[in-house]
């Protein structure tokens, strides 16, 4: 079975997140942090990066006071899982 693995993602001016760059651990990523830290925003951005504009349900994903936002999926690697 083929799947995709995020090697790196950078988020700028989405919801409450000004800028964050995430380089996941090879085995597992556990989103953790205080309330309002941006955990759900990061997960939304990953979904949007894979699903495109049609995946954005939020009418205003751009951070308040900013003109534009970016999701830079620096590296997404296709992998083949062993069956």
Question: If you had to describe this structure to a student in words, what would you say it looks like?
Answer:
The protein is of the alpha+beta class and 83 residues long. 16% of the residues lie in helices and 36% in strands. It has 1 helix and 3 strands. The chain has a 3-stranded antiparallel beta sheet. The longest helix has 13 residues, at 39-51. 10% of the residues are buried. The mean pLDDT is 80.
The biggest beta sheet is recorded as: 3 strands, antiparallel
Radius of gyration based on Cα positions: 14 Å
Sheet/helix structural class: alpha+beta
As a percent range, the share of strand residues is 35-45%
Number of helices: 1
Q: Got a strand count? A: 3
Short description:
With 83 residues, the chain is of the alpha+beta class.
Break the fold down into its secondary structure elements and pairings:
Layout: E1 2-14, E2 17-22, H1 39-51, E3 70-80
Antiparallel strand pairs: 1-2, 1-3
